[in-house]
Specification:
This protein has helices at 13-24, 76-86, 128-144, 162-177, 210-222, 257-265, 284-287, 318-334, and strands at residues 4-9, 29-36, 40-44, 47-53, 64-67, 90-93, 122-124, 146-155, 229-236, 243-251, 270-272, 293-300, 307-314. By secondary structure, the chain is of the alpha/beta class. The chain has 2 domains: 4-125 and 321-334, Rossmann fold, CATH 3.40.50; 130-316, Dihydrodipicolinate Reductase, domain 2, CATH 3.30.360. A 7-stranded mixed beta sheet has the order 3-4-2-1-5-6-7, sandwiched between helices. Strand 5, helix 2 (76-86) and strand 6 form a beta-alpha-beta unit. Helix 1 crosses helix 8 and helix 3 (128-144) packs across helix 8 (318-334).
């Protein structure tokens, strides 16, 4: 088997998860080159790495470079991404700098692997909330074609990074001790609260925060449907890991809840957990550390024609970032799209 030199740029929550997933997936790597802003040694999931400073020259001889951009930790791919491509490297970027760039395919392997054929050495990972939604939507879209999507998200603090996880932990301890709860990462206290703001307001979509805009624009690109009607409301909730979403979908033709359940039960990357009478449905705590998107509460929406509702949950750091990036590389190798 061909082996590859693999770089991971960034050693935060996503970068660490990428290294873990690469080893768990037995990715054919002959060398791991870990880059960050400064040189040091780091132990990540039981393995010690010599971290080197990121630079254009550091990508010499690298076959795959995974850029682990997250909210508040973006920009490395802007600085080094195309320089890495020029050195013969395939870049897979988890940040949002190039997702809507026409040169860059935006890919979820279960959804649109054919777009990888258009790669120019650079592939983008979609937003974590988008990934889990399109994994569930794609098999339904192939069957009945989507007309409109209304989605509300309930997003874990790990999507913002380690500082947000620490803030929720600290606030929970302060609440239990009767102490004042201070907020630094978020504009309001997150412990025992919900904040209907993820990212910042954008002029292009008045009234929508950045995360909502990603969920509108990214599926359109992946489904090759620039006019697909989508609206989103994204909410940060006091959960450490795994995003949850309530999705309402209207189709061009009739699709029953039973048909949708059967389609999803046979869809790659999806696990159906749907026995609401016995309080069985996807939970954030059950999806953590798992690869799949978990779907349940599948039901007919009787308020509109050709509509169903469902609930989906997925680990936002794993499938929503690290695993999807590694799966892109695996799919490129499988499709013979990587030159050596």
């Amino acid at each position: 088997m061909q082996e590859y030199t693999v770089a991971v740029v960034g050693i935060g929550m996503v970068g660490g998860e990428m290294l873990k997933v690469l080893r768990q997936q037995n990715f054919p790597a002959k060398e791991f080159r870990v880059m960050a802003t400064r040189a040091r040694k780091e132990v990540v999931h039981g393995y010690e790495y010599d971290v080197i400073p990121a630079s254009a020259d550091a990508f010499d001889g690298v076959d795959f470079a995974f850029f682990a951009g997250t909210e508040g930790a973006k920009g490395a791919s802007q600085q080094y991404g195309w320089a890495a491509v020029e050195r013969g490297c395939v870049v897979i970027d988890n940040g949002d700098d190039f997702r809507m760039d026409e040169r860059v395919p935006l890919v979820v392997p279960e959804v649109n692997p054919e777009h990888l054929k258009r790669h120019n050495g650079f592939v983008a990972n979609p937003n974590c909330s988008t990934i889990q939604m399109v994994v569930a939507l794609a098999p339904l879209h192939r069957r009945a074609r989507i007309k409109r999507v209304v989605v509300s998200t309930y997003q874990a603090v790990s999507g913002t990074g380690r500082a947000a996880v620490a803030e929720l932990e600290r606030q929970a301890r302060d609440y239990a001790a009767g102490n004042e709860m201070k907020n630094e990462v978020y504009p309001h206290r997150i412990a025992f609260n919900c904040i209907p703001q993820v990212s910042s307001l954008k002029d292009a979509f008045p009234g929508y925060y950045g995360e909502e805009i990603k969920m509108i624009r990214e599926p359109r690109k992946m489904f090759d449907d620039p006019d697909m009607a989508i609206t989103a409301t994204c909410v940060r909730v006091p959960v450490f890991k795994s995003h949850s979403e309530a999705v309402n979908v209207q189709f061009e033709e009739k699709l029953t809840a039973e048909e949708a359940r059967e389609i999803l039960s046979n869809a790659p990357g999806v696990t159906v957990v749907d026995d609401p009478g016995n309080s069985v449905y996807p939970l954030a705590i059950d999806a953590a550390e798992k690869d799949d998107v978990f779907v349940g509460r599948i039901r007919q929406d009787t308020s509109a024609e050709n509509c169903i509702d469902f609930w989906c949950v997925s680990d936002n750091i794993r499938k929503g970032a690290a695993l999807n990036a590694v799966q892109i590389a695996e799919k490129m190798i499988e499709m013979g799209l990587v030159k050596k």
